[in-house]
Design a protein that fits this description.
alpha/beta; seven-stranded parallel beta sheet; 7 strands; globular
C-alpha cells in the first residue's frame, strides 16, 4: 500500500552536501520533516544552515546538528533528542550518506629499481600522503561502514524503527572495482553492503527494510577528493546509456519512490541508481 511521506520524519546522516543534501530536499518536497547530522567547518556549517532554512520554507520541520556521525557520544546525545522530535511517529526513513575516509594507497608506487624494465613509470600518490596506516584503515571502515550498524542498534533500542521504516546506505561501484588510492574506501563499501544484508535479515521480522543504493558516477565534493577522479568523467559519461552522469537528485528521487510504501518486501539489496552506467558499454 502506498503511504504519503507528508508529516513523516527522516534522519539523514551526512545531510550537508552531495546526495544527503539532495535527499533532504526530495523528502521535504513530499512534506516530510528532516533531521540531519553533518560534520563541517565554518563554510559547511553556513551551507547546512541555509539548507535547513530552505526546507523550513517548504513548511516542514528541519533540525540539523553539526556532530561527528561516527562518535558514540553523538548517538548518546542525539538519539533521545530525535525521539523527542519525532514523538509517536518514529522514523520513516534513515539515510546513511557518510563519505569520510582515507584515500591513500596500500603500498608505495614502484620506482625504476622495483621493476625489471623501464616501461613502468612511477606515479607518486596524488595526495602526497604516503601509504595508509592501520589507524586510517580502521577509521575509514568505522565511519563509512560500521557506523550504520551502531546507529541502527541505538535507533531500534529507542523505539524509533517501526514496521514500514526504511534504511538506506549509500555504496558505490568501487565496492567491487579497483580505483587508485580507493582501497580503504572500497573495503568500507564492501563491508557496508554486507552490513545491509545482515541488518535486512535481522530486521525483517519487525517489518523494517534495509537496502544499499549504488549511485552511478556523481560529481560531488566527496567524489572530487578521489585521486584521478577527473579522468573518470568522460569514460563514465560515454558508458552511460542516458549520456549523462548521475545527479544527486536522482538518488533523492529514488529514495522517495522506494519509501512510498509500508512494505518491507524489497530488502537486502544493492540497488543501482546509475541510469545503466554499470551495464553500459
Amino acid at each position: 500500500m502506498l503511504v504519503p511521506l507528508k508529516d513523516s520524519w527522516s534522519l539523514v546522516l551526512g545531510v550537508s552536501s552531495g546526495m544527503g543534501r539532495a535527499t533532504a530536499r526530495a523528502l521535504a518536497a513530499e512534506g516530510g520533516n528532516v533531521i540531519g547530522i553533518h560534520l563541517d567547518t565554518a563554510d559547511g556549517q553556513e551551507a547546512a544552515g541555509e539548507l535547513a532554512a530552505e526546507l523550513r520554507e517548504r513548511g516542514v520541520a528541519a533540525h540539523f546538528f553539526n556532530r561527528n556521525v561516527a562518535a558514540a557520544a553523538t548517538r548518546a546525545d542525539l538519539v533521545p533528542r530525535i525521539a523527542e522530535l519525532t514523538g509517536d511517529a518514529g522514523l520513516r526513513v534513515v539515510v546513511h550518506s557518510v563519505a569520510f575516509g582515507s584515500l591513500l594507497p596500500f603500498v608505495p608506487p614502484p620506482t625504476a629499481t622495483d621493476v625489471p624494465t623501464a616501461t613502468v613509470t612511477a606515479v607518486p600518490d596524488a595526495r602526497g600522503g604516503g601509504t595508509i596506516t592501520a589507524r586510517q584503515m580502521a577509521m575509514t571502515l568505522d565511519v563509512m561502514a560500521h557506523s550504520l550498524v551502531y546507529w541502527t542498534q541505538d535507533l531500534l533500542a529507542a523505539g524509533l524503527l517501526r514496521a514500514g521504516a526504511k534504511i538506506y546506505a549509500l555504496t558505490s561501484a568501487g565496492s567491487s572495482l579497483v580505483i587508485p588510492s580507493y582501497g580503504a574506501v572500497s573495503a568500507a563499501k564492501s563491508a557496508l553492503e554486507s552490513h545491509v544484508r545482515q541488518l535486512a535479515v535481522e530486521l525483517a521480522p519487525r517489518g523494517v527494510a534495509v537496502n544499499a543504493l549504488r549511485p552511478g558516477t556523481t560529481i560531488t565534493p566527496a567524489f572530487r577528493k578521489i585521486p584521478g577522479s577527473a579522468q573518470f568523467d568522460d569514460a563514465c559519461l560515454a558508458r552511460n546509456p542516458h549520456r549523462r552522469l548521475t545527479r544527486p537528485e536522482d538518488v533523492g528521487e529514488a529514495i522517495v519512490v522506494l519509501s512510498a510504501s509500508d512494505s518491507s518486501w524489497v530488502t537486502g539489496n544493492v540497488i543501482g541508481v546509475d541510469g545503466g552506467e554499470l551495464i553500459g558499454t
